[in-house]
Each structure stands twice: as C-alpha cells, then as structure tokens.
Design a protein that fits this description.
Length: 356
C-alpha cells in the first residue's frame, strides 16, 4: 500500500465516506494508471471502478490497474450507475475538479446520496513520491538539462527569445520527452523582470541577463528548472543581484529537512533578499511541489501550511525582479530525504558557469 492508498483509507474511515469520486486526470492516473484525457474513478475501501467511453476502452484495459473498467455512453449517468452498484450513500468528491454543472447533474441522479466536497483533505494526496516516481522525475530532469546544454550555443546577440525557446522544446522532444512541462520562458534584458515572461520576438542583446525557465515531461512526470545566464562579462549590479539570489537559494535548500515548516523554508530565502533591501521585488513563493502536475503540494510560501516530509519533491526558486532593469531567478528541484534533502537538478547555478 503506497502513501496515497494509506491516506485514502484513513480519509474514508475518518469522514465516514463510502467512496471518493476522482475527476482530475492527474489523480486518476496516479491512482489507477489511466493516461487518457477523459474518465472518472470511484475509489471505495474494497472496490474501485474506472469509467470512460468507447474511445478509451482498449487503452483502459491496457493501462488501468487495481480497478475494474466500465464503459459509459453518458458520463454522469455512467458514474451514477457505478455508485448505485456499490450502494454508496456518502460520497466524497474533488471540489476543485468537479464543475458546478456536473455536480448538479450528479445530485439530480443520486437524490439519496450525500455529496461531500473534499478540498484540503486530498491536497497532499500525491505530495510524497514513491521511489519509481522520483526516478521518472530524474529522467525528465535529464532530458531537460541536456537539452538546455544543447541550446546554449544558440544563445547569441541578435537571436530572438522565441527562437531559443522553440529550439529548447524541440531538443527536449528529440531526447525523448513527451512534451515540455509548460511554454518555455525566455526573458532577456528588462523583460527578465517578468516572472512569467513568455519567449517573445525580442532579440537578445550583448551584456543582457536572460532568465530561462524550462522543463520536460517523461511518463507523465514533469521537471522544472530555471537558469539565469549573462551574455558577456557581467556588470557589478548584475553580479550583486545574481549573488544575492544564489545565497537566498542556498540558504533555503539548507533549511529543508523532514518536519520543517514550509513557511520557515520560504522565510530562509526571503529573509536574505529582504535584508538586502529587495524584499518587495520578490513577489512569489519560494517553491512548489511537482510530479504529475507542474504545480502541486507542497506550497513553499508565506501562505503555505504544514511541514515537509520525506519523499516530497519541490522547487526552490527565489528571484528578484526590478522593473525597467531585469531580473534573476534560480530554480532547482529538491527531494526530501530522511536527514535533509537531495538536489535533483544538476546544472550549475554558479555565476561563473553561466556566462556566455
């Protein structure tokens, strides 16, 4: 029984639920192996039913494990039949995944079933990774990192940001990635002050800093990493901001250990930046979990809650963004181990190694 199964068994008993209805594709894939684009999973203590339509019948029979497959013509009606067959009277459901319309239609067909919305109770379902999940993330990291190295020779003055981003995504696919984790961010010069600056038609210029945020997907699992490079000898302010972000990242990484509060890990990075007078220029959280989704639990931020546990994988990515000047972000993926953590990503974050 893995982490998720233990958590679900405990949840069913603690909340007196007969079953939980899963709607999100990430949780469905995690719990029964189905990788298609439509379906639902009824997860009861002793029985599990995966439901989908005829388009996915063969795929479901090949992929689904630990659940029986039932085909439907109409999704809500098929789910209702499955729930009635299990005699479900109290049903938990993913509140963030089930639309209001689908909820109402399900409620109409199951007037005697008590529908219980689940939010925080299942947020951490996939937060702790099994060893085989970590290996898939490692493979995604390798694909992305080596593709980044393939791309570095193309980072020259005059080359458009979008050209760099497109080539990096092309290389990730050539190296075996299913896709990029997200549209690759390439933001140079003043545009580097945009934390999510999508690659544009802007030409990269000499002496500019370039923030490149990229990732690959392998067997459904994602990587996510950010490098900041400089075209030419860095100026004093570029060195200062880069070194400050690097120190903040290193301090946060050192703070990671089982039982540590996500807020304290965030503060370890944030305090370094704030003390140097740049606190208001670091507006996002220090990190986020990653796995079947690019952003999942835990959330490493001032608004996060709980503590980190062995087996969690998340990013550490502080940044400073100065409007009209540019910015620096450095991001690595961290695996929480029994006594501390392991940095899974391996591209150097030292400035001397990121001067082109």
């Amino acid at each position: 029984m893995n982490f998720a199964q233990k958590n679900l068994t405990s949840l069913l008993r603690r909340m007196s639920l007969d079953a939980v209805l899963f709607w999100s594709l990430e949780n469905i894939r995690y719990l029964c192996g189905f990788s298609g684009s439509d379906g639902a999973l009824i997860y009861a203590d002793e029985e599990r039913i995966f439901l989908s339509d005829s388009r996915y019948e063969e795929q479901a029979r090949d992929e689904v494990r630990g659940a029986v497959f039932r085909k439907y013509k109409k999704k809500i009606e098929g789910i209702a039949r499955g729930l009635r067959s299990l005699r479900v009277r109290r049903l938990g459901f993913e509140a963030s995944a089930l639309s209001w319309e689908s909820y109402q239609r399900l409620k109409e067909r199951l007037p005697r079933v008590n529908l219980v919305p689940l939010a925080g109770q299942i947020t951490d379902l996939r937060a702790r990774k099994e060893p085989e999940e970590v290996e898939k993330i490692r493979r995604a990291i390798g694909i992305a990192s080596e593709s980044f190295r393939d791309t570095l020779p193309r980072l020259k003055p005059g080359v458009r940001e979008k050209t760099v981003g497109d080539f990096l995504e092309f290389r990730m696919k050539r190296r075996g990635g299913e896709s990029s984790s997200f549209p690759t961010i390439v933001a140079s010069g003043a545009r580097a002050a945009l934390p999510h600056g999508k690659a544009s038609a802007k030409g990269i210029e000499k002496k500019e800093m370039v923030v490149i945020d990229f990732g690959a997907r392998h067997e459904g699992y994602h990587s996510d990493e950010t490098q900041t490079v400089v075209l030419g000898k860095p100026e004093s302010r570029q060195k200062k901001i880069y070194d400050l972000v690097r120190k903040a990242q290193e301090r946060a990484i050192r703070a990671v250990r089982p039982g540590e509060s996500v807020r304290r890990i965030d503060n370890a990075a944030r305090e370094i930046i704030a003390r140097a007078g740049y606190g208001k220029f670091f507006g996002h959280g220090t990190g986020h979990g990653i796995g079947l989704a690019v952003h999942e639990a835990p959330t490493i931020s001032p608004r996060g809650s709980g503590v980190v546990k062995e087996g969690m994988v998340f990013s550490i990515e502080p940044g400073i963004y100065l409007p009209g000047w540019g910015g620096v972000r450095l991001e690595d993926l961290i695996l929480v181990t029994a006594r501390g953590c392991e940095v899974l990503t391996y591209l150097s974050k030292e400035l001397k190694d990121n001067i082109i």
